[in-house]
Amino acid sequence: MTTAAPAPASSGRARPPLPSAASRRHAVDWRIRFAVLSAVWGFSFLLIKVGTGAYAPFQVTFGRLFFGTAVLAAAMAFRRERLPRGLRTWGHLAVAAFLLNALPFSLFAYSELTIPSTLAGICNATSPLWGMALSLVALSEDRPTRRRVAGLGIGFLGVLTVLGAWQGFSGLDVRGTAMALLASLSYPVGWIYVRRTLAGSSHSHLSLTGAQLGLATVQLGVVTPLFTSAPASFPLVPLLAVVALGALGTGLALLMQYGLVAEVGPTTAQMVTYFIPVIATAAGVTLLGEQLAWNTPVGALIVLAGAALTQSRARSARTATAADAAPGPEAASPAPAGVAPEAAPPVVTPARAAQP
Predict the structure, then answer these.
(1) pLDDT at 300
(2) What is residue 168's predicted lDDT score, i.e. its pLDDT?
(3) pLDDT tens-digit map of 213-254
């Protein structure tokens, strides 16, 4: 749940009101930024595939986190943001960094060694389904409704359609697919953890997310040398793919998502989740020449329909929870420094967009 930072104590002097995020003017219309964000995250799976063609998955993930952190660090310096304080906060951020960045990013990179980028993108779309299922168990304020239960059932039916369950999963790389699904599951686990530990933090979302991404970079910096050797060469195209994956698909995308959440609210911003698999599929088929059986796009549509149903609420419920929908600190993923996405990292509800 997005939570606004507590107001500072009054000093007794009148202070001019700060402009609300919603009232700030943007040079580029939010619809254009929404489309760009969808494209950036949709192409992330193609970039992962290209990067792992020359570098080890851990190396791709480390590069992604490094360049993503560099972008957020530059943004923090420009806005004069300070890093969070307190060992307890940093401890929670270290766990969030593992669940929302280091683990899912690495799993997606490893999964694309053996599965198409199109399938990885569709697996990412299951994150809202996992999130809703987990939140019904772990979060007391999320109560099961017929609409949500139906959405879960429809969504997982779509997953079985994508995987070709009636064929006994023939031709499916089980290990790679399981990694991609586990990566998608990691996001809502991380979101629930963040919601329980960091909601209401007085630190800014940019500060929290920058620190989180930096900690994930450190985690991969320790792990990568233990399981990989230094590359013998640095092919240009895969290297550029890793740089773009980090600088654009992680750092810049999170900053764009901040702006969207502040301007149009998390409900609209999280809709980016439903465009990511469509763009990932189109990119994989047209640019990488990946084969697409009929059940893959059909199953993906069923997954997205189920995910949308789990996020929908009755009109009265929306009115009753209007305060919860107010923009505050970031998703995501992601995700916090997520994905899907996930849409206000790192303090988000499990339903927010997962960053791929």
Answers:
(1) 84
(2) 65
(3) 999 999 999 999 999 999 989 999 999 999 999 999 999 999
- Other CB atoms within a 10 A radius of the CB of residue 12 amount to 5
Instruction: Tokens for 197, please give them.
Output: 């530990």
β-strand partners of 339: 355
CA angle 193, 199, 204 (to 5 degrees): 120
64, burial (CB in 10 Å: exposed 0-12, middle 13-18, buried 19+): buried
Q: Tokens at residue 123, please?
A: 């697996």
State mean pLDDT over 122-126. 89
Fill in the DSSP letter of residue 250: I
User: What's the mean pLDDT in 324-346?
Assistant: 37
Alpha-carbon distances of 181 from 65, 126, 169, rounded to whole Å: 21, 8, 15
Contact 292, 118 (CB under 8 A): yes
- The three-class DSSP label of residue 303 is helix
Whole-Å CA distances, 172 to 158, 165, 178, 351:
16, 10, 10, 28
**Cα–Cα–Cα angle for 23, 26, 29, nearest 5°?**
110
pLDDT beyond 80 at 81: yes
Lowest mean pLDDT among 150-154, 172-176, 190-194, 325-329: 325-329
* Alpha-carbon span 261 to 315, nearest angstrom: 21
Closest CA to 206 of 305, 91, 110, 73: 73
Please report the pLDDT score of residue 170 as a whole number. 66
CA separation (Å) from 121 to 143, 195, 297, 320? 29, 25, 11, 34
How far apart are alpha carbons 122 and 127 in whole angstroms? 10
Q: Which is higher by pLDDT, 301 or 213?
A: 213
Instruction: Give Cβ neighbours of residue 13 (< 8 Å, ≥ 6 apart).
Output: none
